[in-house]
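Entry:
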Amino acid sequence: MNDGENYWNAFRSHKRTATDGPTLSPWMVTALQATKLLLFTLCNITLTLGSVFSKLIVLIMSTNIIPHSHLLDKFSRKCSRANVQRTSTTTASIYIGLLMIQCLPDIFNMIQAVLQIVKQRGGAGNLVGSLVILECLRAIGLSVLTFHVFPQLDLGRCIVLGCCFPLVAVFQRSLIAMMNAARASKKFRSRLGRCFLAMPHIFMCIALFSSCYLWTLFDSGKQFTAHLALPIGIICTSIGFWESWIDTTHANTSYDELYRLKYAVRKMNNTTKAVVAFCRICCVLGVMIAAVFMNGHTKLHGVHFFKAVFYFGMKRGHTLLLLLAVSIIILHLIMRGISRFLAALDLHPISFIHPLSIAPIIAYSFVRLTCQSPTCWISRKLAKYGLRWICDQWFQESSGFTSPDFYICMIWLIVGSYRGWKLVKQRYFESTEEIISSMPPISNGLCIEQSLVVFQHSLNRQEKEFLIEDDDLINNSDENDELRIRNDDVDKTSTVYACATMWHETETEMRQVLRSILKLDVDHATRMSSKKSDLRYRLEGHIFFDDAWENKIEDGIEKREPNEYFVMFFDLLNEMTGERLNENGKLETRILVNTPYGGRLVVKLPSGTLLFVHLKDKTLIRHKKRWSQVMYMYYLLGHRIMDCPLSIEDRQQMADNTFILAIDGDSKFEPDALLRLLHLMNAKSDIGCACGRIHPIGSGIMVWYQKFEYAIAHWFQKAAEHVFGCVLCAPGCFSLFRASALMDDNIMHKYTKTASEPRHYVQYDQGEDRWLSTLLLKQGYRIEYAAASDAETYAPEGFEEFFNQRRRWTPSSIANTIDLLMDYKRAAENNESISYAYIAYQFLVIFFSMLGPAIIFTMLVFAQVAAFGIDGTNVMLWNGIPIGLFVLLCFTTESNIQLIYAKFMSIVYAFIMLAVLVATSSQIVLETVVAPTSLFIVTMVLIFFFAACLHPKEFTNIIYGIVFFLMIPSTYVFLTLYSLINLNVITWGTREAVAKATGQKTKKAPLERWIDKIIDFLKEGVRILSGKEKRENAEKQAKFENKLSKIEMALRNVEKGGEEIDKILSDFKEKREIETQTLAENMGIEKEETRKEEMKKANKYVWMNSDVLKICERGKLKSAEKTFWNELIETYLKPIKSTAAEMKQVAEGLASLRNQIAFTILLINALLALAIFLIQKHKNVLSIKYVPYKGFKWTKMNEMTGQFEQTKEPLKIDPLGMGIVVFLLAILFVQTLGMLLHRLNTMIGAFQEVRNLYEYGVGQPVANTTSEDERILTNAREMINARTMSISHAGDGYTRHRADEAETGNVLYKLQKARLAKRMQRSALSN
């Protein structure tokens, strides 16, 4: 460190500016395989039929642009009774509908691209001019055909004419064939054979080219006027259909940009996207305006177009036409989504039934069948829209089959289908190849089958270098920059550090986490030794024991030794690993090391993984979980990566491929859970953390409650956060963090900050996991949720333990959410996954959570009124008094009294909730299901049941919903109030501890103090009279002499102490004589303390010779690491020592903060409860009258007779309560939608763990499924896991994991650049 800086301390904070088979049971494998087959079938059918329907609707609308009043074909004669009313407004709506189908997707793309350009503030990318020209030609060609050529034809001819679009592709293939045949280097026989092979291509080219002039030759009646428009439309569309004639042979040619866009080797940048969309819109609009004049619409004016749009009526034909166009647009979106979905599963539509090859044949066959066997229902349906079925004119007479153009049209149909099949024909690749899939980035509504093709391509090494999103990332980088990364050989082997924090776990909990680590040990060794497995990872375990030391007194001498919890852990570790002693009575796989923070046990697990057990001494280093996390972050990422003697490129690679698996001391998980998180992290580079599904385990009613609570929280809340934004909290019991994300600015370094304000104590120390997640989100990293990664952890089983846990979690969660909402502009600017809509959603969630006590309170009141028929005012008082008393107890009494009262009231209200259940059921029966309150309750129950059905492995959690329902008052009222009013209780748990920390003495009762004084007086008298004091001094001196001898012998037995131990022994020999003489003269208190301080150095090694640990080998910490720990402790982890005055000031600040927040929220809840109650009290005046439907009846009690009678009176609804219900239902629907999308993503991941479709079979083993489908899994996650199509793999292209490092993602580059800037600044100041 020549510059005087510590590399391990390079992290910064600054003020921000703008191998094994899947763990699936056989029935699940069978179900997934069957579901996969069913989805494949349904998706293929939907794509094919949807394309046929879209093509027919577009052609029907197009052929009706010009009215056909005199039709003589068989269909028209039979179905002539259908009354078709055509007006100029109807014609205008046809034009507008076709314009919408083609241009509306372009409008959305243009708006999105412009917003992205504005957000990026430059650097939107270079314009790809060739793409703009080709897409404009395609738009012109399709518009000319749709608006001018097709109206002069019938449906049959329009369909076969659409088959001529591959004209340029066929012409290109013919030229290639002729050039191959004309090569002079080939023999004559070979050239002759190639000539024969070229003839079919030439024939197909001539046949398709005839479509440009065919009807001009055969038009004897001069009815066909599009003589020039026809070849323009065909040729422009064929050239614009560039995906059909661009292939892999165009790489590194003048068409290289098009090749890269087609196969997603690069993404289409925002500049090109915006310009292409704008030009296409202008082209289509211009052609449409020209077609209006060319088609002879003399009576069609601008006012008709205005009426078609703004004169809305469901019974008007022009409105129905526009709605039909909107439905076609939605159908196109669904079909493109289905194509992406199938590509994600590596189940592309079967080539010969792909819409591009089969849709024209099906459409033509349907038209022919309809015209030959007229079914007039089609005519009647179209008449409602003002449309006619323009039947194939070939079949007007019996001699229709001899029409001059019939056979050539059949050739067009066959050639077009054949070329479509060639384009979508599936290619097969080796499993070792890196395959990318892509779709056309632009949707063409007038010919949607062109936009449903999925292209696959295998990348070679050279192409991988160009996997970038934008050219500017290269153009803006300095080639001569010494810090620029040039290494392209990225090590794909990940490094995973499994880091667990422990304190006083039980043996069962320790066994659980050790079993999980041992399973990881086996899986890691298997994968590292296997050459077939692509997902390989290095593994290292770290366990940080908090407060692992205790003082033990032997022969009057105090020494520090590991406590009983570590001894229990050590015995358990030996039992589970089955290690045996060697010939010298030692365990070679166990090494003890002294460290500046206490001690360390290094263990080699059976399969070779190293497990480091760090024993923290709270007298040497800060204890508790957050500081353990700071320890392993700085040790693993600072010392291991930053301090290593490697180049910045290699260190950046280490950071990119390093992950920290954060677990608790009682976590239980399978290796597959970690692998799923690794897959997710490798699929998307912007993920800073991925967390799994946490399952609470234990026994008792409180655990049952938490099972349902955790279930609905993960099913709805976490899934919605994942889909619509980011997960807000990564649980510390099972989350995988990316090292480079933690090392970024304002994350790791800021995590070391101590609280300086009262709110910091709540935000930083009460929920460290939530705060770390907030730092990641505000820095721009995503946190994602993988539902298939299951982990278990022990949940609080007692009422008091549960309340105290939530007392810490609730304020921290609220504080971090509010922190994110208050800084929403910066969060939305830095993090692309956080939008203003997501911020609004989180605001509603936190707002209604604050109103929870009032909402539940009023629900209890009115439910009791309905159940018992008691006056509402009395019920209000009866419920308000116990809750008010609890609030008073929370402000004035100790926590144990609060919890006793809350526990008692929870039992009482559990019985009351039974009455609520009865009252709610009665209300549903009386007011029927369509009443707003009844509808809300029934909807909520059905949604919960539906969610349970979507999670079959967790379906039994729905049973615990009964316990959850009974405990609603306890958790939503008493727990909320308890957490809120005890907000000032932070690191300490009770008010007795607060008094002790602030230097105050806990007051005892007068009787208790009097008894203590009497006992102390008697003890002192007996001690003086018996002469015990003199004997104690003599015994103390003898014991001290004995202890010194024992310590000297113990130190000589230490094998690896070195010169340091020799020095200690020599010091003791000298000090022994001095201390012996001093003790003989004076046994005062000051001499006792001096001896104890001098004994600490010797005790540093004595713990290794304890009865339990003496079987371990001895080791010594390297000097570099020892220096690191000393500097780290001195900088960040030195134990905090506060004076009584400082602690009192903190306590007063927290109490003031508590008072402000508690009184505000209590006042708001009280006002809301009172408002709802008063509105209900005056329901006859202030309510909204609501009739669900005409003729609605409901049952009401007659106050005169006391009997239930049916009435037609409107329901009376409380407007304030109804507003709350509507908002809650809206939040629930949003979360349900998020759950459905997230389940779809999870299902895709599950499909990759079973065999491919062609291996479908129930009883076959699936051991090798993961290795066979890892390529598919990565592709699937990249395509489907994206929130929008524009950032997905198949939407606009492929994004390399490290594509944007040159701009923002290269953490090591930024840190090194900052260090160089500081060095230059110091040099300038010194000069």
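The chain is about 60% helix and 10% strand.
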